[in-house]
Amino acid sequence: MHDVTPGVRVCVVRPMPPLPDWLDREIDTIWHSEQQRLDGALFNGQVFSADVISPRLICGHWTEFRRIVAQMRKPELHPALGIRPLAVGGIIICPDGVLFGRRPTRSVYQAGEWQLPPAGSVDANAARAQGRVDVAAMVLQELAEELGLSAAEVSPPIPVGVVEHPGSHVLDLGMAMRTRLSATTLIATQQAQGNGEYEPLIAVKTDALPGFLNNFAVNGQAPFFLRKLGLISS
């Protein structure tokens, strides 16, 4: 896990590197295979990839989603691609506990696992002037899309750390948010206004977190963020 400060800055410092022909062909083959599997649902947008991570600054470049998919499917491509795609993940703490949602079984990554919502890649919607990348705006966009909640209904997102996944080298930037809304209200709002990303969405009481983590297929970043926030013991 990489430590970051609450005020960590994210910025673009170089262009997307070109690909050798052999690697471009390999990526195309994997991309078309995944598109067929998912009925053409994938979009080759731009996603931020980190080159350097420090507590106060994360620097990198924009890359194609198809490159990320290829590296996820064939981790041995990482030495040639060098991608570390950055995603934001919320840790929503409500009066009834911590929110968890189960990912769709057809997801490209971590299919069917329970995760801390909302979550999503840092894409070009987070791009700002002078190369700045607004990760707080990104997690709030995911909050609205996945859970149907506005920024006014949660506390400002606070970065708590970055987890790097072995193999895929996906990076998850955890961002804690608190809300006064009850679990019942949060779940009803997600069902009425969310995009259907999670089925189901639940709240796990703090004292039940260790048992939940031990008995359910929870993705690897969740325990790191919960420990960092002192919600579970180390």
List the SSEs and their pairings:
Elements: E1 9-12, H1 21-37, E2 46-53, E3 57-64, H2 65-73, H3 78-81, E4 86-94, E5 97-102, E6 114-115, E7 119-121, E8 132-133, H4 135-147, E9 158-164, E10 171-178, H5 183-193, E11 201-204, H6 209-215, H7 221-228
Parallel strand pairs: 1-3, 4-10
Antiparallel strand pairs: 1-8, 2-3, 4-5, 4-7, 5-6, 5-11, 9-10
Helix pairs in contact: 1-2, 4-5
Overall description:
The chain is of the alpha+beta class and 234 residues long. It has one domain: Nucleoside Triphosphate Pyrophosphohydrolase, CATH 3.90.79. Helices cover 29% and strands 26% of the residues. The strands form two sheets. Strands 4, 5, 6, 7, 9, 10 and 11 form a seven-stranded mixed beta sheet that branches. The chain has a four-stranded mixed beta sheet with strand order 2-3-1-8. Helix 1 crosses helix 2 and helix 4 packs across helix 5. The protein is globular. 36% of the residues are buried. The mean pLDDT is 94.
